Inverse folding.
């Protein structure tokens, strides 16, 4: 299974990430809203979740907390513009497996996604 759930409300960023991940033969499901993202993540049909923090209707920290409370073990890579140290610490302590800040290197994002896949 090479399915990635991308929860990102910025359509341009979402499309860019999807384009590059599909070039690497990943199947990418794009969601632009926090509540819908949580519902899709709870289905547990993905091997990685790429999660923005600032989303409409439900923020990324809340999504991460709810997934971990439900014992969803899918790796979570937070991809966000929140770059303060405290934001990174909160994201990782909430249950994220990795944290990247925007602007980001697409090559680094792809390398991190591949690293998660190798561990599965």
């Amino acid at each position: 299974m090479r399915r990635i759930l991308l929860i990102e409300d910025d359509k341009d960023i979402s499309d860019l990430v999807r384009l590059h991940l599909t070039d690497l033969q990943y199947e990418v499901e794009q969601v632009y809203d926090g509540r819908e993202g949580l519902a899709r993540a709870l289905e547990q049909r993905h091997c990685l979740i790429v999660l923005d923090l600032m989303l409409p209707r439900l923020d990324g920290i809340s999504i991460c907390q709810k997934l971990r409370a439900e014992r969803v073990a899918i790796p979570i890579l937070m991809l966000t513009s929140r770059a303060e140290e405290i934001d990174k610490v909160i994201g990782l302590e909430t249950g994220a497996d990795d944290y990247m800040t925007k602007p980001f290197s697409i090559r680094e994002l792809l390398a991190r996604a591949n690293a998660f896949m190798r561990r599965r």
